[in-house]
Design goal:
heterodimer, A: 114 residues, seven-stranded mixed β-sheet, four-stranded antiparallel β-sheet, globular, B: 113 residues, mainly beta, six-stranded mixed β-sheet, five-stranded antiparallel β-sheet, 11 strands, 0% helix
Chain lengths: 114, 113
Amino acid sequence: GAVVSQHPSWVICKSGTSVKIECRSLDFQATTMFWYRQFPKQSLMLMATSNEGSKATYEQGVEKDKFLINHASLTLSTLTVTSAHPEDSSFYICSASLNTDTQYFGPGTRLTVL
Amino acid sequence: EDQVTQSPEALRLQEGESSSLNCSYTVSGLRGLFWYRQDPGKGPEFLFTLYSAGEEKEKERLKATLTKKESFLHITAPKPEDSATYLCAVQVRSGGSNYKLTFGKGTLLTVNP
């Protein structure tokens, strides 16, 4: 149980384009979903927290107009990186939580911006 | 500011050689401490949650313990398949009814056969 999927697993795009990443909880309804970014040999940094049907709460320093988060249902959240630039290249990981306790993580999406 | 420090950064063991990983934390209002395992290029895999000092949890060759200032992940007779990065995270209130995790940088464990 508690399986979270992400799609795509990797994506390469040109600078200036937008990229959408999907996060799905496959066997449970997630009241809250989280988006993280991880740079090589660094730990996970929380970008934003989203509750179904509500606007996402962004961490300090994360541009909400650049990283658009939509949490339309209890099983799906999307992260759109708008006007991507090479410095946005990173490993993006989502997690989902049934209640306020354990977060279950997806397999991650490797974004490379050329 | 909430801080989580893991040590050592890297640990190399021989198969069967037991050891411990450390996670020290400074937070206001700790709700829980989590241990995750992360393989290269993958998302973290949940291992344990600890909520109060003195609590212990075990899973196969792993045992996690918690005090008021730190947590230990003990690995008994490790096998090569235990090789991974082990992440510690503290859960604190982030506003409203939401809770967020603050992660340490992890300990890269390598177990040689």
